[in-house]
């Protein structure tokens, strides 16, 4: 049996904006690029901002660090709010789509959608 496949959604602001527009999001909300994290480049990001999508490769080193951090934070009693929507990506090449789902699902109170 073949493993599940996912058609990748290009991590491109124009493509992502068009995608959510087809799902009913009003055009007043859009995706844009962030060119860097220094104050000058961040000042170029249109406001308001609901989410930042960071796409990066997952390595063994990252996974080890993530596990250590999770254990450290749990040991300190830090938890995750039940209001945070999270799904784990289990299908390859779905990071753009999963990131987009997280951005929209965690900002439903701020985003505007057309009538169904």
From TrEMBL:
Subcellular location, record wording: Cytoplasm
Keywords assigned by UniProt, alphabetized: Cytoplasm, Hydrolase, Phosphoprotein, Protease, Thiol protease, Ubl conjugation pathway
Record Gene3D superfamilies: Peptidase C12, ubiquitin carboxyl-terminal hydrolase
Domain of life: Eukaryota
A Pfam family hit: Peptidase_C12
Family annotation (InterPro entries): Papain-like_cys_pep_sf, Peptidase_C12_UCH, Peptidase_C12_UCH_sf, UCH_AS
Protein name: Ubiquitin carboxyl-terminal hydrolase
Organism whose genome encodes this protein: Ameca splendens
Name of the encoding gene: UCHL3
């Amino acid at each position: 049996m073949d493993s599940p496949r996912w058609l990748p959604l290009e991590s491109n602001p124009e493509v992502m904006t068009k995608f959510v527009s087809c799902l009913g999001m009003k055009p007043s909300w859009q995706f844009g690029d962030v060119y860097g994290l220094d104050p000058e480049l961040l000042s170029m990001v249109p406001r308001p901002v609901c989410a930042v999508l960071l796409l990066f490769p997952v390595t063994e080193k990252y996974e080890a660090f993530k596990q250590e951090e999770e254990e450290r934070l749990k040991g300190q009693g830090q938890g995750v709010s039940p209001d945070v929507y999270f799904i784990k990506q289990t299908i390859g090449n779905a990071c753009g789509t999963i990131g987009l789902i997280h951005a929209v699902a965690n900002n439903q109170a701020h985003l505007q959608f057309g009538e169904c």
